[in-house]
Every structure is written in structure tokens, then in C-alpha cells.
Amino acid sequence: MASHLPDTLASNGLAITGAALALLLLGRYWTSVKRLPYPPGPRPLPLLGNLLDVPNSRFALTWTKLAEKYGPLTFLTVPGQHVLIISSVEAAKDLLEKRGSIYMDRPRFVMVGELVGLEYLTTLSRSSPTWKKHRSLLKHTLSAQVVKRDYSAHMTKKAEQYLHYLSTRPEEFLKDLNKVMAENILELTYGRRDDEEGRDYVKLNSYVMETSIRAIEGYIVDFVPALRHLPSWLPGMQFKRDAAKWKQEIEEVRRATFERAKRSVVSGDAEHVSAYMLNNLRDLYHKHEESGDTEALEEGEMAINATGFSFFIAGVDTTQFTAHGILLAMILFPSVQEKAQAEIDRVVGRDRLPTFNDQQDLPYLHAVVLEALRWGPSVPSGLARRSLSDDVYNGYLIPEGTTIIFNTWGMSRNTQYYKNPSTFDPERHLKPNPELDPREFVFGFGRRICPGNELAFQTLWIMAASILWAFKLKRVEGDPTPLDDDVDRFNFDFLSSPVPFKCQIIPRADDLKDKFSHSF
Ligand code: HEM
């Protein structure tokens, strides 16, 4: 025993010296890291920082101009926060994918998250065990296999419904696109779109979506969070009164929509139940029967509802605006439309509508959908992230807590990836060496990548196939909407849509209406 003592002391001493040395080196490393420059960007002014470099609207256009001047990384300092704009796919992948654990968080959304109370949505959730639970639920519910197996018939029916509207009231083509897309997601998630008392859940959820997007688009309290603690009767506190009202309304919609869907599952109402609710609730109730764990049951229901609720808010406008872009592209680039129709006619013929079984025989149409995702990215400035620790990239310091923006518009117009990027050209995806697949960036990156990408792609595909099979789309002569320039064609809101335009919708056959069903 005695003979071991000096050895132990010596080894303890060594360990302590080793640890001290490691700490010293680490300390020096961090001190040197802290001295590294931030990525390039416009010079910040005293007190205001780069506030004057941040526009009030059409953000993605400004981010793209900054990228032309400063390169793929642009760093801004606005009072209270650092902002990094990433405009190259390589840098976005290096940071958001390869260093995913540093960049998987979202920033604090004071207005829409904390005051309106939507912080439980998957899209806005901070990196947390609850968010991880959502992601694992989503992996099972929105995988390519499940989308094909459970949702194909439904998506095909909604495309047919749109054809019916186009043939009966073509002047409403944009309003009806919105209606059909909203119903598509709501029915896939919750089953029925109304209830016994005649409440219209599509309308109610659309209201929630509009309100939440309004709340995410920027309130003073997001820059000065302390304002949330002032009493709501003070002048200038209208946002607090709005938030309280919206919170109550949204909670009621969320509760009622979910209760309606639960009643369908529990009562075995097969006609009105969605595969999403049925599969997930059935699993949860089985587990509860075995364990009797009520807390787990409540948590499970909350996760299923919060995730489903996120589908509507994240999935309706994004997909709808891309479909809207397909219609616009068809009138602006008529030769693309003709080529797609020639392919559809050759493969499908004129006696029946296209189905998902035709997909592999329609490569040009596949390229049209890819091109639509690139040409009019519906989330042009991405969805912000927040860095969880200091990071060093290409010799620059990205400090902990930086808000990260990925500029998908800039990526889509980058001439390093795309030749003549403002032209809608599906051929770019069909060349022996195809140009960059836009799915590499329009759906985001890494651990937060859009879980609805497959559902979105398939919905767009069946809509495009059906519309082009049935109708010729033509620009209305004399429509004054300026559509010649890339930057006039889209509105560049947080979720960006093409500007409204007029369109002539001409049936490609006399007996068109007999070809699709009328029971919607
Ligand atoms: C063309 C259509 C769509 C586009 C362009 C799109 C794009 C995006 C983008 C850019 C993000 C942020 C990803 C990131 O931070 O890296 C996102 C997140 C998300 N999307 Fe989509 N999306 C589309 C359709 C859908 C659909 C149909 C659904 C569901 C039904 C959906 C559900 C979600 C959810 C739940 C998130 C949050 C993921 C998370 O924070 O973990 N999206 N989407």
C-alpha cells in the first residue's frame, strides 16, 4: 500500500498539471478566437450598428445585393444582436449541416412565440426535447414512403377538384388555388374540414396562418424584448393587446380542430379520419392502455396536435405560392408549357387524367416542378436559426447567439449555379451535367430541413400534371401587371408569392368536364 502512495501522488500531480495546461491552452485559444474578425459586412454606425442597412421589406433582394459586395457571408450588427446572412449553398451546408449541433436552434420570437403563444409550433420551437419529439413524429408521418402510400389518392382528388373549379369559374383561379391547397393540408392532417355545428376549419386555420405570419414579420418587441413587461394599456402597446386577442382565438381554433379529429378517430368515423391522426393517435392510445401513464398521454396528444397544427402554417402558403409560380411561368414561357403538354399527351393520352403511376415516364414534367422550386423560392430568406456557441469559419468568428439567415433567393439567382437564372428553363435539370438541384437549398438545411419537402413536391407534381393535361394557359393581352423583370414578378414577403396576374384558361378538349368527378 505504502509503496503505491508516491505513484498515486505523482499520477494525480501529473493529471492536475495536465488539466491546468489544457485549461490554459483552451483559455488562450478562446482569447485568440475572440480576437478573430467577424465575417465581412457594411461598417456599423455607433449606437445604430447596421440598422440602416436593414430594409423594411423585400429582404431577400437586399441580402442578395450585400452578397454581391461582401461574398457568401455577410455580417450585420443591429442593436442587441448579430446577424449572419449566408448566400452560398456550400457555406450553408458547411455550417448548418456539417456543424448542425451548433446551428439547430431558432432565435427567440417574442411576438409570435412568447406573446401570441405559438412557440410550441415545430417551425418556431427552440432546440429542445419537445422539438426532437416533433421531428421523430414527422419522420414517420411525412417520409417519401408514407406520402406515396397514404396521401397519393387524396392529392389526386384535390387536383381534380381544382380542374373542376378552373373549368367552372376560371376567373377565380388564384383564390381557388388557395382554397384547394388549404383543404389539402387540413384534410391530410385532421381529416374533416367542418364539424357538426358547421364550423369551417379551413377558414379558421387560414385566419391562424395569416395572423401568425403577420406576427412573425417583425414587431418592435422582437428588437426590444423588455417592452413586453410594460402594461398593455400604455400608448404604443397595441401589439400586446393584439397578441392577447390572437392568442385566445388561436388556442380556440387549435383546441376545436384537434377535438374534432379525435372524435373521428375514437368513433371510428373512417370516412372523415386522416391517416396522420389515425396512425399517431392509435399508437398513443395503445401505449397508454399498456402503461396507464396519463402524463405521457397528454404530452403525446400535445405533440401530435402541435405538429399537425404546424403543417397548416408551414405547408399551405409555401406550396401554394410555388404552384402559383408554375402558372405564372407557363404564361411567361409558353414553349415550356408546350413541351410539357406534348410529353403528357404522348405518355398519358387524352382519355384519362395523369396519375402518380405516370411519374417516372414524365421527366420533363419532373424538371418543370424542380424549376418552379428554384425560380420562385417561396421562403426567400429561409427561416432564421440561432447559433448555440461561438464558431470559427474560414478565419471568421461567428459569436454565440448570432441570428443566421439563409438567403435562398440569392442562391437561386447565383450564376455560379445557374445559367440565365431569371429564365424558367427546366432543361437545366435534364442536361448530362445538370445544374444544382434546388432541393439542395429551398427546403433549408441539416437538422431543421423542411420535413414536408416530399409532400410539397408530390402535391406540386400532381397539380402541374393535371392542369397542363386539361388546360392551355395564356397571358391576357393588355394585362398591365409588370412581369418582364425578375424582381417585379414576386412580392418577396417572408413567404413570397408571385404578384397577382391575369390568365386565360382554355380547355384543351370540348368534353373536358366529363373526364373528372364532381363530388367534392
Ligand atoms: C414548396 C413548399 C415548401 C417549402 C419551399 C418549404 C420550405 C421550408 C423551409 C425553408 C424551412 C426551414 C428549414 C430550415 O430551417 O432549415 C421549412 C421548415 C418546415 N416546414 Fe416546410 N416548406 C414547404 C412545404 C412544407 C409542407 C407541405 C409542410 C408540412 C405539411 C412543411 C412543414 C415544415 C415544418 C414543420 C418545418 C419546421 C421544421 C423545423 O423547424 O424543425 N413544409 N420549410
Quick structural gist:
Pathway: Secondary metabolite biosynthesis. This protein is an alpha+beta fold.
Describe the overall structure.
By secondary structure, the chain is α+β, with helices and mostly antiparallel strands. 54% of the residues lie in helices and 7% in strands. It contains 19 helices and 8 strands. The chain has helices at residues 4-34, 59-70, 89-97, 100-103, 110-115, 129-141, 144-168, 173-190, 201-216, 220-223, 238-266, 275-291, 294-332, 334-348, 363-375, 408-412, 453-470, 486-489, 512-515; strands spanning 73-78, 81-86, 385-386, 391-393, 396-398, 403-406, 471-475, 503-507. A 4-stranded mixed beta sheet has the order 1-2-6-3. Helix 7 (144-168) runs parallel beside helix 17 and helix 8 (173-190) packs antiparallel against helix 13. It is globular and about 75 Å long. The structure holds protoporphyrin IX containing FE (HEM). Protoporphyrin IX containing FE (HEM) is lined by residues 122-123, 135, 185, 310-311, 314-315, 318-319, 322, 378-379, 382-383, 442-445, 448-452, 455-456. Keywords: Heme, Iron, Membrane, Metal-binding, Monooxygenase, Oxidoreductase, Transmembrane, Transmembrane helix. The chain crosses the membrane at residues 12-30.
